[in-house]
Amino acid sequence: MPQAALSGLDEATRDESSLRRFLDGLPGVDQVGVEQRAASLATRSIKKASKLWALNTAISMVDLTTLEGADTVGTVRSLCAKARQPDPERPDTPRVAAVCVYPDLVATAVEALEGTGIGVASVATAFPSGRSNLAVKLADTKLAVESGATEVDMVIDRGAFLSGRYGAVFDEIRAVKQACGDAHLKVILETGELVTYDNVRKASWLALLAGADFIKTSTGKVQPAATLPVTHVMLQAVRDWYTATGELRGVKPAGGIRSAKDAIRYLVAVNEVAGEEWLTPRLFRFGASSLLNDLLLQRRTQLDGHYSGPDYVTVN
Amino acid sequence: MSDTRLAVAKTYKLYIGGKFPRSESGRSYPVTDTRGRFLANVAHASRKDLRDAVVAARKAFAGWSGATAYNRGQVLFRVAEVMEGRRDQFVAEVRAAEGVQPRRAEALVDAAIDRWVYYAGWTDKLSAVLGAANPVAGPYFSFTVPEPTGVVGVFAPQKSSLLGLVSVVAPVLATGCTAVVVTSAERPLPAVTLSEVLATSDVPGGVVNVLTGRAEELAPWMASHADVNALDLTGVEPSARAELERAAADTVKRLVRAPRQEPDWTATPGLERLRPYLEEKTVWHPMGV
């Protein structure tokens, strides 16, 4: 990141035109380069003790998610039970970072997770499309926060972003951040709808400037969801943000990460692109549901010395 | 321009989940005929390929076991049809692999094709032969029905490269189970061609997964794999079997007791390779309601 771009961070947010000047002035992403770099890091082999460490770390980074129309109080409670004790036969298995639900089910999750230290994340702001007015989005956020959510996952207005109304997106994130109070704010960029890596970089910086604690790839409702190259671009953004301001912000890939192998590839990317400080649930999360089972199965394989099967973990 | 054409040296791949991937390990090994002449390279499967194959077989199990017995019979018959179309290729490969005379090789290939037809006929007769309407002293109907056990790990015979292979794989499919097959290490080419036949017949991807490689390397991982329900150790050295059977007992796998010497595969089989892959389910139902 050129120093000229970084020195103007305060300038950037002064008004809409300076924000536009800053975001459009960001260097473009070398598409071939980033894809090749992501692919080459993905070939790295992690074995034995390092693998077990990676699996444990990945488990502790999972935001165990259920975002279905068919969610009930019962399914959320059983998910919370799984979050508290992912593998009941192996009580030393780490707990997940948080449980992620729709706002109306936050109260249920808060009750089920009381005293565990596991966070309750809630999607808000007319998830997943973000198509509503600011008042409704703020009310949505308020419902989540007042029900006890410790983390709020908001979606940006992709329509506004793609039509170049950066100021509108910025103001909306600011307003939601304010409505969050003490709750952490994760800003979902929905990279599958942003089309280019350049847009992903712009949206990342826009969200960081507006005060996002985390930037998150996707809702999980749009294909493609999280990919390694997109996560690379976002990791570069938080690293550059740290270089410029000294503040640590997090990244959360979500959607489409189903195997432990994929998860470990993401951890390699975190270590290589952002740095070791980011290898903690405070700064890196996986938004996933089926991933946890595969992590547990691979963890068992490491400990037992033979392959396990889906009959030995709970059905999601 | 020269009349002599350059030979196309082949490097075959594995067959997992309906696709033909290379071994995850990147390994391959050369295969020769009985006189030591080079035939082709084949993939040398690793334990991770075996893991992937079991995942593929598990994924395919619901669809295959849920298909009607009639439908499964049709599919197995279709395999025989497609094999018939590649009869000459199979004859040449069996000759090269087993070093037999042309006449004998033809007889072996014909017997292998007929074996598919034989097991195709069994699919919708299993429940009649192995199931029962049980006589009970009470106002109940009591039925026993055979159901497929799940994923079967098959170590194909080392010597009989095609007939032996078909004789151990076809019954697994006839019962509605899915298979992870480790082929003969020295004679894998007919198995590779069979996987091409399976891919182009109506057998859904993942129902049969074919790994070329060493039985002694893969057998411990198959035997201890918690997601494999039954094990056929025909292609494993008799001296190594006891240890593998112990490992299989940890997860209560069904075992096919293979004879120490390879049997005469041309003999018409009975139920001995169907029964081990079936679980008996008994249902009680109140009468007259």
From TrEMBL, chain A:
Its signal peptide is none
Its Gene Ontology molecular function terms?
deoxyribose-phosphate aldolase activity
**Gene3D superfamilies (alphabetical):** Aldolase class I
Organism expressing this protein natively: Thermocrispum agreste
Q: Name one Pfam family in it.
A: DeoC
The alphabetized list of GO BP terms reads: deoxyribonucleotide catabolic process
Enzyme Commission designation: 4.1.2.4
Q: What is the designated name of this protein?
A: Deoxyribose-phosphate aldolase
Question: Under which pathway is this protein filed?
Answer: Carbohydrate degradation; 2-deoxy-D-ribose 1-phosphate degradation; D-glyceraldehyde 3-phosphate and acetaldehyde from 2-deoxy-alpha-D-ribose 1-phosphate: step 2/2
Give the gene that encodes this protein: deoC
UniProt keyword terms in alphabetical order: Lyase, Schiff base
- From the UniProt record, list the reaction(s) this protein catalyses: 2-deoxy-D-ribose 5-phosphate = D-glyceraldehyde 3-phosphate + acetaldehyde
Its family remark reads: Belongs to the DeoC/FbaB aldolase family. DeoC type 2 subfamily.
Q: Which domain of life is it from?
A: Bacteria
TrEMBL record, chain B:
Looking up SUPFAM superfamilies in the UniProt record yields: ALDH-like
Q: Which residues form a coiled coil?
A: none
Provide an example Pfam family for this protein. Aldedh
Q: Which segments constitute the Aldehyde dehydrogenase domain? A: 32-255
Q: Which InterPro entries match?
A: Ald_DH/histidinol_DH (IPR016161), Ald_DH_N (IPR016162), Aldehyde_DH_dom (IPR015590)
Q: Which UniProt keywords apply?
A: Oxidoreductase
Keyword check for Oxidoreductase, yes or no. Answer: yes
Gene Ontology MF term list: oxidoreductase activity
What name goes with this protein?
Aldehyde dehydrogenase
